[in-house]
Prior knowledge:
Blueprint: H1 3-22, H2 30-35, E1 39-43, H3 49-64, E2 73-77, H4 85-101, E3 108-113, E4 138-143, H5 144-153, H6 160-169, H7 173-181
Parallel strand pairs: 1-2
Antiparallel strand pairs: 2-4, 3-4
Amino acid sequence: MSPSAYANVEQRTRAWLESFVVGLNLCPFARPVLAADGLRLTVCESAKLEDIASMYLQELDLICHSSESEIATSLLVLPAGLEDFDTYLHFIDNANNLLEEQGLAGTIQLASFHPQYQFDDEPEGATSHFTNRSPYPMIHFLREEMMDRVLQEFPNPEEIPLRNIETLEAMNAAELQQRLDNLL
Length: 184
């Protein structure tokens, strides 16, 4: 990946974070993390699954061996190699299995984002899919202890998914897709 392509992936990802995640308030916890520069954003330059898996393991190791003040959360962006949603989901399943095998369940949680994200129970054209749609496939490494703490401090956190769906339903899928397509 050329330096300009790498920079473009990072810029589009940051624009998505600002426009979708923070701008639509899909994650009320994102704004403070971004403002405090607590997000580590890493772009994988390879399309080879072995390299993607290696980068996943590096990010996992890094967040496990860093303090929250150093890295609050980490986002691994995968612009090539996992474009097919089913392939991506298989990779995520393996990544979650690895978390459990390493005894990290309850310590690190993975959130998944993909340009073609689709929830099983939802119709294909549902706007709810956009809560997890992003310009590129991504893996978000979350510290469970940090999430437990912020959820305890947030009023009615169980209402966040419903509020997100209401926010997205106020728009239509075509408008949301255009917002994604027009990032930078």
